[in-house]
Amino acid sequence: MQSLSNIRCIKAACARLSLPAVEHDPNGNLISVNVKGETLWFSNYATPFNQGVIDQICKDKEFTYKVLKDAISMPKTKAYFDPAYQKIQYAPFREFSSEKEIVADIFKNFSLPMIVKMNSGSHGTHVFLCKTKEEVETAIAAIFQKNSSDYDYIALAEDYIESSAEYRVICFDGQVVLAYLKDNSNAVFTGNLSPLHWEGAKAVLISDTTLVATLTRFLAPSFKAFPIHFGGFDVIEDKQGNLHLLEVNSRPDFSIFIRGNGDEPVTLMYEKILVSLAK
């Protein structure tokens, strides 16, 4: 069985650099690599580059916002705890006693259209563009639906930014090592707002050095506020050409990018990272 795309590219980079990659499971999705006497472990989409708490902050969009909002432009965001969550130790976090009260507070702080989304989701799951009060109510109810496999006990309301472009920017130790455009200009919306989940969307490798430099300058303040070594930064460009950070993924998945661009750009990225670690 073939390894996941991320691990496959890491193993290819190791082979080019004559770094033995030891496989520890039958599918080759758990590997270790020795670099300058240190054993680095890679498992599925997890890398050894970040501390565990960094992973947790990135999974929690509210935490990410709290850490970075004063360092870099992000859409205003507010979190709401499920008023029906039963675990007694979480009772102090319940600011509102009903979904109706939550919706009322959302409209005190945000205007339509707005984004309502689950706090710990990925791949565009439970992200709603709401244009009416009824859509906000439906979104909150969906996120707090306990019988759903996508249940979250925290919902987020967020300012909507009309996009002219959206980018995924992969950074290692403060440097851009890969960047691509999430191009849905000729794609069909099928219900998931995440650009690369539209039918016919493409991940387009960015080779324009001027654009890469612009993205690098924009993201630079975030590394002073948040000590992440490796991550994928989702950056949106509004209609006026201003950049805003949406979220950070400490375990980026390259499968959609590889589908349209092949393994080579990701292999080269990991090769560059491993070379920097071996110095």
Task: Tell me what the structure shows.
This protein is α+β, with helices and mostly antiparallel strands and 279 residues long. The chain has three domains: 5-43, no CATH class; 52-71 and 162-252, ATP-grasp fold, B domain (D-amino Acid Aminotransferase, Chain A, domain 1); 77-159, ATP-grasp fold, A domain (Dna Ligase, domain 1, 2-Layer Sandwich). The chain has helices spanning 5-16, 52-59, 61-68, 99-109, 133-143, 209-225, 255-261, 264-278, and strands spanning 21-23, 30-35, 38-43, 77-81, 114-118, 127-130, 154-159, 163-172, 175-183, 202-205, 230-238, 243-249. α1 packs across α8 and α4 (99-109) packs across α5 (133-143). It is globular, with a radius of gyration of 20 Å. The mean pLDDT is 95. It holds the Pfam family RimK. Keywords: ATP-binding, Nucleotide-binding. Residues 80-274 form the ATP-grasp domain.
